[in-house]
Amino acid sequence: MEKERHVLVVFPHPDDEAFGVSGTIATHVQNGTPVTYACLTLGEMGRNMGNPPFTNRENLPKIRKAELQEAARALGIQDLRMLGFRDKTIEFEDEEKLTNTITAIIEEVNPSLIITFYPGYSVHPDHDATGAAVVRAVEKMPVTARPTLHCVAFSNNCVDELGEADIVHNITPVAKIKLAAIQAHRSQTEQMFVDMEEKLKNQDPQMMVWVNNERFWTYKFA
Ligand SMILES: [Zn+2]
Prior knowledge:
15% strand, binds zinc ion, globular, Rossmann fold, alpha/beta
């Protein structure tokens, strides 16, 4: 993994960082690179309350905030920003307001790399709208000043339309940290984690590939 000046991660929901990119984040942290994680919402509209439920609708934002902070601690992220947008509404937010929010963070932390969702290939409207806002913010910058943009995509058509990911990080050395980050989002992942652990214990080939490799598409600006 290339050494970066500063990595900015932008996602809409607590736990978006855990599945696809936490090994990459942990590696940058271990390389001594500052990482800023801007999380737009607290995922307060999520349907999972734990299984069996250990929270309720009123307390969910508080729980998910604590889980997000715990995941950030596990990954060694020192700069966690919770931007206070509302879950499931990012696609309806004023585009300029969203773009300006991202621009302000870019101007402040001056990242050499930004990690976000690939607009149009990330399944959830909040994901696509977040990626689109990051693309708009970077597009406004002079070409030579733009940070590299690595996008996460996982829609069914992403490989057909975008081709194979051009960046694949093998994160095996920090897989334990990744699992800790996934586990930190207990309200969302507790059940799933039982199944994951079993498969990992048995070295299930598909699960090993999924955990140990993180794929990104470098965004190509028109
Ligand atoms: Zn999400």
